[in-house]
Amino acid sequence: MSATTFLMLRVSDLKQWAYCPRIVFFSYVMPVDKQSTFKMRHGNDAEQAIDRLEKRRKLTEFGLTDGKRQFHFWCSSEQLGLSGKLDLLVDSPEALYPVDFKYSEQQVYPNHIVQLSAYALILEECFGRLVDRGFIFLIPKEEIVLVEISPERKASARALLQTIRNTVRTEMMPEPTEVRARCDECEFRNYCGDIF
Predict the structure, then answer these.
(1) Strands 133-138 and 68-77
(2) Angle between helices 11-19 and 21-28 (to 10 degrees)
(3) Are 82 and 10 in contact (CB under 8 A)?
């Protein structure tokens, strides 16, 4: 199947879907003006600060001895119909490691893992190398978390692509997230009349 036969998606769409499917619905099916939220503004500021600091970080902090770092690495997959800008790619002799920066004060969440898994799939296609591990950098804690990217996680990311495309094709609004606290800071909160 070529990319021309299905909707091209962004890696961030998988993360957003896992957070709340309606974010993706409003982006593709019913585009509306969205409100800039504190998290969005703060995340951009934090990312710029991390960019400056990360250039000085040693690879040993990732448990690696050697490798080349590429920041803001644009990648895409024609087979998957998927593209995105990875925060950091570490290309070491032993493996490729996608690294994603997250402004999370708690932990790594499932939506972070599905996003990292999607990047692994793209990198495997681009470089012809297995990608079975990556890192999430939790910005507030300055903590680097190793994430195993199993075949099951990759399969879940692939299945999610199909789910998103089916939703866009049928134009059926999905159920909202069950975590209502997420709705309070959502840029689309004004459009979910069944929640507010």
Answers:
(1) unpaired
(2) 130
(3) yes
Provide the angle, in degrees to the nearest 10, between the axes of the packed helices 151-170 and 11-19: 80
CA separation, residue 123 to residues 31, 116, 130, 158, 177 (Å): 30, 11, 8, 14, 29
List all residues 6 or more positions away from 91 whose beta carbon is below 8 Å from its beta carbon: 67, 68, 69, 70
Q: Which residues of the chain have pLDDT under 50?
A: 1-4
Question: Cα–Cα distance between 136 and 150 in angstroms, integer?
Answer: 15
pLDDT tens string 187-196? 888 888 787 6
Q: Which residues contact 125 (CB under 8 A, 6 or more apart)?
A: 77, 78, 79, 80
- pTM higher than 0.70: yes
Residue 172 makes CB contacts below 8 A (sequence gap 6+) with none
Closest CA to 86 of 53, 59, 126: 126
Architecture of domain 35-170: Alpha-Beta Complex (3.90)
Give the phi and the psi of residue 186 in degrees, each rounded to 5: -75, 140
DSSP annotation of 57: -
